[in-house]
Amino acid sequence: MSQDTKVKTTESSPPAPSKARKSLPVLDPSGDYYYWWLNTMVFPVMYNLIILVCRACFPDLQHSYLVAWLVLDYTSDLLYLLDMVVRFHTGFLEQGILVVDKGRISSRYVRTWSFFLDLASLMPTDVVYVRLGPHTPTLRLNRFLRAPRLFEAFDRTETRTAYPNAFRIAKLMLYIFVVIHWNSCLYFALSRYLGFGRDAWVYPDPAQPGFERLRRQYLYSFYFSTLILTTVGDTPPPAREEEYLFMVGDFLLAVMGFATIMGSMSSVIYNMNTADAAFYPDHALVKKYMKLQHVNRKLERRVIDWYQHLQINKKMTNEVAILQHLPERLRAEVAVSVHLSTLSRVQIFQNCEASLLEELVLKLQPQTYSPGEYVCRKGDIGREMYIIREGQLAVVADDGITQYAVLGAGLYFGEISIINIKGNMSGNRRTANIKSLGYSDLFCLSKEDLREVLSEYPQAQTIMEEKGREILLKMNKLDVNAEAAEIALQEATESRLRGLDQQLDDLQTKFARLLAELESSALKIAYRIERLEWQTREWPMPEDLAEADDEGEPEEGTSKDEEGRASQEGPPGPE
């Protein structure tokens, strides 16, 4: 029976699935593969935009290299077809998440204008070659419809390149070249239509020596178009209506092109100046201030040299302002990647939490000191610590000449002054003179910034204080007795505070009882007043007594009974 069951199980089991074909992966539109594919599509699009018009207007060019043109044409068509395949495999963002479902990608792509333009650019118009012959490249003008891919590639490159302003200038020059190229081709085609050599405006008769060569034809047309579009002049006057219309159109195009060029160049220059102003402080305002305040020439020279050093060596002093538009987490990651290695060299910050170091990195302020400038002097109040990023600093005597030690890149000083350590014999005063030997780049961390960060990390604050005590013990600058006395004083103060808190709680309890008794007494008084008001409400008024005298006295027994009943009823008690 077990054998029958085994046979049935074997027969009912489905066949092993065959290996599935590997499909093309879905591309991220912000990824590198998609970016490099866009750059690849620049070549076929530029080929059609430049060469196709030239072949249509210069017949000799088309006839001389027909086989090469056919190979390049169908190679570009193949790339156009592959580009549509890439489009069907390029994801899109929906609520910030990349959609990789190929069905949704395809349905979204076919509903866009890009799909219809791509499809129209691949229409097989070449089949008309059978009737008109292969020397009619104008049949392929529909390939111009793929130009949006060129603009998309330029936009992506501009955002990725390290020199966006230079790329904008190069892109502008390319557009100018394409416009002049098209115009030169149209000029040569119009000259052929009107007749070569018919007047001084059109292209000379190719029968003349030198004008029959293809290179001469193109260069002459390009030069003539450049003169027109740059409004330089020095061109023969038009003689026929077609020539007048061509010149008017070129002049209008030149005006628009001139405005576009001026606007683009102004934008590039403005962006460059804005970038310089964001990276480097404006020295013009400082120079004007010093001139108005009649600052001595030596000090003014030092300030100018400082600014010049920043500009030449591309050093920044306002990193916080530059990164302020980034999200907080991304800004922290950038700062960590740049400065975390420097901060981790400080002994008191070693073995601290990673999140604490990230917070401290955002608080670092870069500073640059000139040669001979003092970073701190002996006896100054220490409100910040310094980390040497680049340069050399000297520990000098009071005369400013004698050097005790030289500090280099990666070292730090002043870290004890920003931590309140009990028993610190030097207090928060500087114990040495630190002078910059050359131009020195330092990171500054203020006491206020450290206190603000440590308020969220009490455990890290305790660890840093312990490390600070160890450093002071090694330097013999920690008064243990003073530390114990300060700790005892702090404990006594805390005990007094706890006693004051207890007394305050007792006073609050007594005050609450007094308020309760006052409210009860007020309620009783209000009840008694209400009862008296009710009792006096039945008393006769003087006017009623006078009327009673006139009418006669009522029966004595009756009045006494009514008064007794009224006194027995009394006012209604409070609810």
TrEMBL record:
<keyword id="KW-0966">Cell projection</keyword>
<feature type="transmembrane region" description="Helical">
    <location>
        <begin position="244"/>
        <end position="265"/>
    </location>
</feature>
<dbReference type="GO" id="GO:0030553">
    <property type="term" value="F:cGMP binding"/>
</dbReference>
<dbReference type="GO" id="GO:0030552">
    <property type="term" value="F:cAMP binding"/>
</dbReference>
<dbReference type="GO" id="GO:0007606">
    <property type="term" value="P:sensory perception of chemical stimulus"/>
</dbReference>
<dbReference type="InterPro" id="IPR018490">
    <property type="entry name" value="cNMP-bd_dom_sf"/>
</dbReference>
<keyword id="KW-0114">cAMP</keyword>
<feature type="region of interest" description="Disordered">
    <location>
        <begin position="1"/>
        <end position="23"/>
    </location>
</feature>
<keyword id="KW-0175">Coiled coil</keyword>
<keyword id="KW-0472">Membrane</keyword>
<dbReference type="InterPro" id="IPR000595">
    <property type="entry name" value="cNMP-bd_dom"/>
</dbReference>
<keyword id="KW-1003">Cell membrane</keyword>
<comment type="similarity">
    <text>Belongs to the cyclic nucleotide-gated cation channel (TC 1.A.1.5) family. CNGA4 subfamily.</text>
</comment>
<dbReference type="GO" id="GO:0007608">
    <property type="term" value="P:sensory perception of smell"/>
</dbReference>
<dbReference type="InterPro" id="IPR014710">
    <property type="entry name" value="RmlC-like_jellyroll"/>
</dbReference>
<keyword id="KW-0407">Ion channel</keyword>
<dbReference type="InterPro" id="IPR005821">
    <property type="entry name" value="Ion_trans_dom"/>
</dbReference>
<feature type="domain" description="Cyclic nucleotide-binding">
    <location>
        <begin position="348"/>
        <end position="454"/>
    </location>
</feature>
<dbReference type="InterPro" id="IPR018488">
    <property type="entry name" value="cNMP-bd_CS"/>
</dbReference>
<keyword id="KW-0552">Olfaction</keyword>
<protein>
    <recommendedName>
        <fullName>Cyclic nucleotide-gated channel alpha-4</fullName>
    </recommendedName>
</protein>
<keyword id="KW-1133">Transmembrane helix</keyword>
<keyword id="KW-0716">Sensory transduction</keyword>
<keyword id="KW-0812">Transmembrane</keyword>
<feature type="region of interest" description="Disordered">
    <location>
        <begin position="538"/>
        <end position="575"/>
    </location>
</feature>
<keyword id="KW-0547">Nucleotide-binding</keyword>
<feature type="coiled-coil region">
    <location>
        <begin position="475"/>
        <end position="524"/>
    </location>
</feature>
<keyword id="KW-0140">cGMP</keyword>
<keyword id="KW-1071">Ligand-gated ion channel</keyword>
<keyword id="KW-0813">Transport</keyword>
<feature type="compositionally biased region" description="Basic and acidic residues">
    <location>
        <begin position="557"/>
        <end position="566"/>
    </location>
</feature>
<dbReference type="GO" id="GO:0005222">
    <property type="term" value="F:intracellularly cAMP-activated cation channel activity"/>
</dbReference>
<keyword id="KW-0406">Ion transport</keyword>
<dbReference type="GO" id="GO:0017071">
    <property type="term" value="C:intracellular cyclic nucleotide activated cation channel complex"/>
</dbReference>
<dbReference type="Pfam" id="PF00027">
    <property type="entry name" value="cNMP_binding"/>
</dbReference>
<dbReference type="GO" id="GO:0005886">
    <property type="term" value="C:plasma membrane"/>
</dbReference>
<feature type="transmembrane region" description="Helical">
    <location>
        <begin position="34"/>
        <end position="54"/>
    </location>
</feature>
<feature type="compositionally biased region" description="Acidic residues">
    <location>
        <begin position="544"/>
        <end position="556"/>
    </location>
</feature>
<keyword id="KW-0116">cAMP-binding</keyword>
<dbReference type="InterPro" id="IPR032406">
    <property type="entry name" value="CLZ_dom"/>
</dbReference>
<feature type="transmembrane region" description="Helical">
    <location>
        <begin position="172"/>
        <end position="194"/>
    </location>
</feature>
<keyword id="KW-0142">cGMP-binding</keyword>
